[in-house]
């Protein structure tokens, strides 16, 4: 309530919106802070705090009262708060007219009529309707009404010009209606013209949640089209945005709807636009914390004012309704002054604090109550004296209270308690503010005895407690320190005895046993107290004597020194007057010397000589002298004396008196009645004089003065003047201003106040009635100071009979002293004379006005009839009487008939009461059409009939069921239901839809129907029931429903779902090997319940497993038996076997893999054989093992006719000696297994020789090995002379000698050893043996197998309990994929579950998941090498949400005196079954909650409740998706069933404190935690910003390969999203092996995997556009691929994983969307090749170069993201500051000639074939670099191959030495083919490439 507008004829009551406990005092003030005073019959404040403004005549208007800002306050002992300012404004019932201007429009265009309302009343008057020829216009068809009251006519026709148009308005406060003039529309034929705006919108501000209409309409020919833009872009697709003829309507406004709106109006001849800014703001909301606080004086307080809503606001603070200003204790901080801090709080700071947030006409506030107490600590619990034995643990407890909570310290015999392993101290604070401290001594010794003292201290003071703890043992006395005592005070001396027992403790002084006087006391614990210490008597040595045996004591002495504090003799300062002398002496009568004496005035040190003050100080006295006293010497003077003992002071006040005198004297003056006036009177003096005003009534000589009663209306101002806020006639007379201050005599001065009366209308009729055609006389009487001028007005027109003789007015005037009357006659009245006449009275002091409403009566207009409700057999009518003929309506008649009948057959309802505005017509026929009209009557006569309405009665429930219901099973879990609508005569209306009920009829079903609902589509319907049980029988019924309800159901029909695949495998699967190529598999049938159909047979799936780890082709056999013989198997081979059952629906689940091995057989022949001479009489034979050993090779047999030799199976060569030189020998070999000797090898011929050319015994061929293994490539040779061995590795069209290092080693026998082989070690290796007689060569193709690449995982579908996943495998790494590992977990946990999936599967359904729950899923493939790279983690949510309560339903069904029944039907499950219902309830005003738990299916009662008691109730309904909450309050009934009234919440002070600590502690801890988190994030952000600025650089080279400049280059733009790799997801037990493939640094991966399982998503995109059109809007291609680069330099290790997507991208934003959509997709090189091939075909890459234009970062949370610039300044033409964190934009320059030699290390993707590995090698000098991206393009169309992108990994090597090249593999189906010639051309043009380094953020 911030603005109150009311009618002057009604008045208003404003309750103060405040309350509290204990009861509050309510007061009202003006916004200026002035008190509210009562003005008789105008304004009054009631005792309950309600401000009432009474109805008043316009002449009594006072803007000070009737148009001003008010606020109220509420005050009790806790504090005082105030309301926001409330603007109160009175609105007069004043005359006004509304009008409508004529309009012009072209036929077919739009016409706009506006109702023109005078600005003075525009705020209160609104358009309620429009009339066309006196008939109300109903919006629709071509007529539209806008929300702000305009009338739009679309598709204007010629006949529209024949009508008149009027608007009808209504006053918001007076209820008056007005009708405008009639306006006409001119319709013209269309002519070609530019658009013209007819109605438009302007900038504005509106609150969120509301609706707004932005008008925009135009005319023109051809008809213009309208287009809406927001912030320069087309409007988003949102149902909240509605385009109508009237403009744009936006409902349910949100903050993001703010912006610039443009309405573009266009036709073929031009365009125009309207622009406006819409600001959507949230309402202000304020939260002040802490809410309530009780603490101690001197505490530090912090208040935080949290403001939500509108961004532009100001914050104001109030303390007890007074504005808070900063001082030494108070500071206001924050951008918006939202923080208030009070340091060293004092008692005055207690009370109520309010925070006000203001923005334009919005205000919000919150308050907090602060109670400051004396917080001096006090001991509330302590320990007592005790005796313990050595080693016996003891604990001492001390508790204290104070504010703020005190801190407790411990001492033992005045020494701090030592903390060690046996002495421990603890301290904690309880919820009530008490501080509790414990001292625990675990193993006490004798030294631990003595006097223990606990001292509690805080900022307010301290408190102590002590007691002795005796530890048994030999007594002794600790050494005691000397004591200094202050004379006159008390001193305690402790005898520090330890050990126990002892007999006594005694004190001696000068040999005398103490005590020896009344000031000495010796306590039992040995403490000596000296009271009122005296220097001469108490100073000296004191001896403590402890008797430990009857005749033996121990002694210890301590010396006491007494110091005497100063003592000031009291003195007084007499009052004095200005100009006199004064002398003040301060004498110290005793105290130890030296004594220091100083003087202070009002707390400030007096500097001698300043302000005329002289100070003279001697040894023990000081005097202060003032030679000439002035007013500034007034104040408190303090003499301060101090010495080593103490500081004392004496203070007195100096008063300088001045008699009163007038500064401003009262003078006679005039006051105007009803206005405020000030009677000036100002005095001065000291002490400040007191001013009293007196009043003597009458203008003659004053008879007797009386004190002026000071009320809210009359007050004395601070300067002594008298303020009269509202001058009345009785205020006239003499006034006396009298002043006194006790100095000299009083002064006074009188004056005369004359009250002038402004002109006021005292008598006039407010309303009067005229009958049409009669004359009317109007009278008006005024009073006030003469002369008075009276003027008459009719409406806004001044009546002047002299100037307008045609107006028949006659005016008569009467003047009597100050009263003047006037009357005139009115001509015969018409309806237009029903207006306001005003009588104006004017004099020199004011103006009064009287309004007279003249009413001309006539028969009423017909009522406006509308149908409020129509039922099947009744209707409810409502009407509005627009114009009653200015006479009260006496009755109504209603007539109705069937639409097809005439009014002669009407039905009539007569004499309806005029107090009714609605009626029910009953006994109608359903679904029938009726015509209705109505008449109204007043005392003048009957109206014309109302507009005839045509209505149709509502529908009734169908009376017949659907017909011809047919069921057809569709799948194993679905049945299609078809039916026809009920008979037409039984439908009782339009069938809206159907309810299908279905239930399972099999064993174990509960017989309950499940219901689904669908909309009707026609006479024949179909619906499919899903998620049914497989191969189960269901019964189905169907019901039809219309608007009225549901009809009867059809008869139940049964159907059975189709078969499905078996859900379990066959049981008891066994395998037996029969022969070397045959095996028998047996099994038994799966469980019957899992067949899901009729078993058709079985299928056996089997495949071989070769020794090298590879799998053979998968085969299967189908059978109907439970046994099968597998024939034709490979001999002595391992096989994997699985069995499955199948039905008509397909294959079921496979059984677990069963392993079997076939038996041994005869081996095959050796795969190869060589024989070479080694000497004149010997040869060496070597061979290869058989391709099919068919068993374990036991030995080899070598034949050299006619001899036969044997060799071990591990030895693959044999030397045959004793041969004849020059003779040829025929040699062959055979292998032997346990089955026997196999076939022989091919035969070779050899001749021994003396000198032999070099020959290699080893064989070439293909060698396959897993990565990270050691591989030996043999190259054994013979020859004479001994051959030399050389190894080379093929690279494109050349061979490169192998460099020997720690990775490569050549043994003495020529074997090449490769350690820890990597992917790039794959390739063709050539071994050459050479001597002087010749050479020999073998070629070995080395294939290194790596783990498979990551699969691309996606979600295909979800349900309430399942998620179905599909994937595409990545590259298999050279080894067959053996299976997949799927892991999933609930999103907010890291508890991963594993699922192992067959290698042949490409989809999987996760079942039995929680409803409405987010899950994380990831997948990895496995091959013979190991687990591959993990897929991106994807997230999916099962269907469902948490329960919600229907707000339209009651929370409780029934409540009596002891029980309450909970309405569980009001909860909607959200799709997930409700599992638990939790209740908490308690009687209002109590603390403890009572709990109750139940399930959702049971009926729930609250029992044993108290009768006639209010309860608080909280209900929580939970399902797997979450919990929904609902709270309420209810009251039990009295014993007799009666209800009880509501109660106010009363809460005790203790409850507030408890709640404060309960709520405050977590809030504070949470705030501290958030603050710490904010600091950490801020420092991380600063670190990233430093890197962004180049202060911390990590540079990643990116290589661009440019084409030969002889070809005209064409460019395409690329949009790149580059991501730092250090945060690749690594959660769960799956091992991501991608970073330790060959060529990577495994050490870097360790650091990555040690991080938390942070999930990050990466995506990159390259956008390819047509050459030369980078800036155009041509559609672009976006290519995607998966690539990884690894390298290290200077300790920096980087691993990158980027995903590319193949999609169209129109602009950067859409490119980003594409990135987002492919976050979980990682494609292979096949896709990159495919995309490049497609682009090449469209000539997108012909003659193109790559230019990096933008990079986007999708995750900025990593600390390791860095940025920097290239060292080469010309590499980058522009580098701008990122427009937002994590995003950089830069452009690469064209290449320079000098850069062409930089990019020689390039590679292209080569297709990967089944038994072949093609390798492309780049040449050039290699240096240690970080990973490089290489972009390679052809020099022209003749290159034969389109441009390709590839990754290059450069490993470190010596300068100028050979560099290792990467193996680049594509998939088997790669679309990018390269011939060797093409590769050669690509390499040749490498000389034209260059590389540049960019920084990736």
TrEMBL record:
SMART domains named in the record: FN3 (SM00060), IG (SM00409), IGc2 (SM00408), IGv (SM00406)
Region Disordered, residue ranges: 1629-1676, 1697-1721, 1757-1781, 1851-1897
UniProt cross-references to Pfam families, sorted A to Z: fn3, FN3_DSCAM-DSCAML_C, I-set, Ig_3
Keyword ATP-binding part of the UniProt annotation: no
All residue ranges annotated as the Ig-like domain in the record: 1-76, 84-186, 195-275, 283-368, 377-470, 475-561, 565-649, 660-754, 758-857, 1253-1331
Principal location: membrane
A GO cellular component entry from the record: axon
Bias type Basic residues, positions: 1646-1655
Membrane topology: Single-pass membrane protein
Coiled coil: none
Residue ranges annotated for the Fibronectin type-III domain, each copy included: 859-956, 961-1060, 1065-1161, 1165-1252, 1347-1441, 1446-1537
Location in or out of the cell: Membrane; Synapse
Biased composition (Low complexity): 1851-1867
Annotated TM spans: 1556-1576
UniProt xrefs under InterPro entries: DSCAM/DSCAML_C, FN3_dom, FN3_sf, Ig-like_dom, Ig-like_dom_sf, Ig-like_fold, Ig_I-set, Ig_sub
GO biological process terms on file: axon guidance; dendrite self-avoidance; homophilic cell adhesion via plasma membrane adhesion molecules
Keywords: Cell adhesion, Disulfide bond, Immunoglobulin domain, Membrane, Neurogenesis, Repeat, Signal, Synapse, Transmembrane, Transmembrane helix
GO molecular function: cell-cell adhesion mediator activity
Domain of life: Eukaryota
Biased composition (Polar residues): 1656-1676, 1697-1706, 1757-1779
PANTHER family xref list: BASIGIN RELATED, CELL ADHESION MOLECULE DSCAML1
Protein name stated in the entry: DS cell adhesion molecule like 1
